[in-house]
Write a structure and sequence with these properties.
four-stranded parallel β-sheet; 42% helix
Length: 108
């Protein structure tokens, strides 16, 4: 699970980029991106998150996103991540990826 909280403004870009780079998914691995505690997401950071999600989806990952309370248009309306599963809570997102992991041929 990847969790970001607080103000995701440009000074935090290196941190966000580093976390996403470290979390690159292997083929088919499910993941949860929890932004429920993010108060604001700068458009550049939202773009980085969208690229990460799009790349993960291309590798066959099941991606569940818990959007921030005040969703950024980039995150909620990006056509390139429409296959991601948006959930209201972290628990719902974890349940979704848990079910997806149970269906994978290698069991997770």
């Amino acid at each position: 699970m990847i969790t970001f909280a607080g103000e995701l403004a440009m000074p935090r870009y290196p941190e966000v980029h580093g976390v996403l780079e470290a979390a690159k998914v292997s083929k088919g691995r499910p993941l949860v991106l929890d932004l429920s505690a993010a108060i604001h997401v700068d458009p550049m950071i939202a773009g980085e998150i969208v690229l990460f999600v799009r790349r993960s989806l291309r590798y066959g990952a099941t991606v569940a996103i818990v959007p921030p309370p005040h969703p950024n248009e980039w995150l909620t309306h990006a056509a390139s991540i429409r296959e991601a599963h948006f959930r209201e809570t972290r628990e719902e997102a974890l349940a979704l990826v848990g079910a997806a992991a149970g269906r994978s041929p290698d069991g997770g």
